Amino acid sequence: MPDLGHDLIFGSFLTPRSADPGAVVGLARLSEEVGLDVVTFQDHPYQPAFLDTWTLLSWVAASTERIHVAGNVLNLPLRQPAVLARSVASLDLLSGGRVALGIGAGAFWEAVEAMGGQRLTPGQGVTALEEALTIIRGIWDVDAHGSLRVDGTHHRVRGAKRGPAPAHDVPVWVGAYKPRMLRLVGRAADGWLPSLGYIQPHEVAAANRVIDDAAHEAGRRPDDVRRMLNVMGGDLRPGSGPSTGAGLKGNPADWVEELLPLAVEDGVSAFVLGSDDPTTLRVFAEEVAPALREAVAAERGPAHDAGRTPRGRAPRALELRTPGLDYDAVPASLAARAVEPGDREYARVRSTYVWQGSPAIVLRPTDAGQVADALAYARSQDVPLSIRSGGHGISGRSTNDGGVVVDLGALDGVEVLDRARRLVRIGAGARWGDVAEALRPHGLAISSGDYGDVGVGGLVTAGGIGLLARSYGLTVDHVVGAEAVLTDGQVVRVDAENHPDLFWALRGAGGNMAVVTSVDVEAAELGDVVLAVTVQDVSATAAFLRDWGALVEASPRQLTPFLTIFRDGDDGPPVAQTLHVWAGDDVEAAVRAIEPFLAVAPVLQQRAQLVPYAAVVAAHHGRHAGQAAMRSRSAFLDHLDATTAEAVASIVRDPDQRMVQVRSVGGAVNDVPADATAYAHRHQQFCVSAVQPRGRRTAADAVWDRLAANGSYLSFESDDWADALPRIFPGATLERLRQVKAEYDPDELLRLNVPIPPAR
Questions:
Q1: PANTHER family from the entry (predicted)?
Q2: In 10 A of CB 7, how many CB atoms?
Q3: Domain 312-407 indexed as CATH 3.30.43.10
Q4: pTM
C-alpha cells in the first residue's frame, strides 16, 4: 500500500519488571528525555514478575511532562471495559491528554483463567474486543443522549452513565495478526500495533490489504488507521550483523535502511522499540529517528507535501468541508492539532458554553508564534474569525458558523514571577479556577469573575467583574503588562511604556485590537475567605432589591455580594440566591457584615464557611456543547433605588427572563479614573444582566433599553452590537478606541467582539 502521509512517531516498549521498579520508571523518563513520543509497557496481569501495567502507566504519567503513555497491549480479558474506559479517561485528564489505549483480545488463556478470567476461542475474542470498544467509546461519548446500553455476548452495560470524557481524542491501537482481528482493526481502530517477529516484514502488505478492505466496507478510509510496528530485540552496536527478522541489528544507518521501506511502501508511521537498554534507546531516539524522518521526507518529496491534507493525518470527508476555505493552506505549525468537521474531536471544540457553532476549522496554537501563523491564515480566508480562550462567555463570540476559530486553550501556564511584588504571569488559555488553585499555595488571589471555568483571555480583556470586586477592583485594574499578537503577525510586549495606547485599549476592549496570549497581573495577598450562601423568598421583589442594594453600598469593602434571582417553577415565587464573599478570614467581622442581609426577606436556606478562595471559583472543565439560542442583556446601575428596583423587578416578572443577576461593581472598582482603561464605567454600584430568547423582542426589552442607557458590559451583550456600542464604550472612550483600532487593526480582522469601526 502507499505511504499514508502520517507524521512519524517513535516510542519505547519497556518490560515492567517488579524486581526493580525504579529501573523501568527511569527508562520511561529517559524515553521522554531523549525525545521519544510515546512510552509503552507489556500487560500481563497474571505475571508476578511484572508490575501491574495500569498502575505503572499512572505512575509514569505523573513522573513525566510531555511523553504519551500506553499499554502494549492491555489484556482485555482481565480488564473490564467500562471501568477501563473511565481509567483511561481519568488518566488522560490528569496527564493533560497524554494517553493512548493499546488493547488486545487476550492470550495465554490458562494464566487468564487462573486469574479469574474467561477462556475464549479466537473468534470469541474478536467479538469480545469489538463489544469492549463499543462500550469504551460509548462511555467517552458524553455528548450522546441517555445512558449507555450494550447487550453483548461477552460484555454488557445496561444503563451505564457516560463520562468522564478524556482530555483529548484518545487513539485506540489494537494488536492483531489474524484476518478476523485485522478486519476489526479496519472497522473500529485508530491504529494497528503488531510486533516484528510475530509478523515478518513481507507479511505487512497482505495484512494492510485486509485492514483497508474492512475500512472501506465500514465507510472509512484506509488512512483512518495508523500503521504501527513494535521493533523487538534491537541492537544498535556496529558490526552486530544483519536483521534476523525478530529484531533489527547493526548501526543506525542499517536500521534506517531496513525501516524505510516499511514506512514508504507499507505505510508504517510509528516505530516502537522493544529494548530495556538505555544506550540503545538513546541511539534510537537521537540517531535513528531523525535520520528515518529525513529519509521518509526525501522519499515523499515536495509534491507529496503539497498534496497532503492539513495535519499530515488522514484526510476528512470532503463533503463536510466548508466551500471556499483553503484547508491545504493551513500552516504546518498548526496542521497536526487542527480540527475540522468529521474529526472525532470536532464535537468537543465546535461550540461554546451557551452557543452552538459550526466552524470550518479550529486551530489550536501552542505559543505566540503559532497564534501569528493562525492570524496570517485567517487573513487569507474570507470567513469569520473567532478567538477563544475558555469558551464560557455568554456572549457567544468565541465560535462561529463556517469560519476559523483560534483556540488558545494550550496557552494555559500560571507562573509567579515575583512573589514580593505579587506579580503573576498567566496564559490566555488558562481557566480562572486553575489560576486560583495555582496561586493558593502562595497566599495570593486575583478577583476574576464568578465561575472557575471562565477563560483568562476573554475576561481579562473585557473587564473582570469578580467576587472580590469591592475590595480588589476589576481584573483589568491590576494588569501591568501583556504579550499580544497583532493582526499583522507581530508579537509584541504591551505595557505602560510599550504600545501604551494599545495597553489602554486591551484593558476593556482587547478582543477588538489584538490577540492577547499572556498577561502579567498583580495579585492580592489573600488566603482563606468567608463564603456565605443565602437563599431567600423574594416575592416582594422590588422591596428586596431596594433593601439589598442599600446594604451592599453600606457594607465594608471586604464584602462583595453577588445576587441571582430565578423563579421556583412556572407558578412559584421568585427566589434569590446571594453569594457573600468576605475577602479575608476575620469570621466575626464577616458575620457582622452579612447578618443584616438575612432580615430583608424570608430565609429558605443559609450556610457559611471559611474556605480558600480557590474553592469558591473551582474549575470544573465541563465540555461545551451549546445550550440554546439565547441572547444576553446588561445594564449598569448607579443605585438600586425604589425606581430602579421596580424596573429590575419587572424584568424578573417577565417569563422570558430565565434568571436575573446583579453584581457588585462599587468600592475599589470606582477608585480607578474612568479614562484609565477602556472600561469606563467607574461611578455605578451594580451591573444587572439576564439571558433571554434570541431572535425576538420580549416584554422586558423596553425596560432594558431604559436601564442600559446608563451603560452596558461588553461580556454580557450578545447582539444588537451597533446599538450597544456607545453604551459599552461611552463618549470619549469610543472615539479613542476607534483611533487605536485604526492603528492596530485597520482591516477589521477582529470584528466579532462588538465591532469597533476604525477611525477613517
A1: BINDING OXIDOREDUCTASE, PUTATIVE (AFU_ORTHOLOGUE AFUA_1G17690)-RELATED (PTHR42973), FAD-BINDING PCMH-TYPE DOMAIN-CONTAINING PROTEIN (PTHR42973:SF39)
A2: 16
A3: yes
A4: 0.75
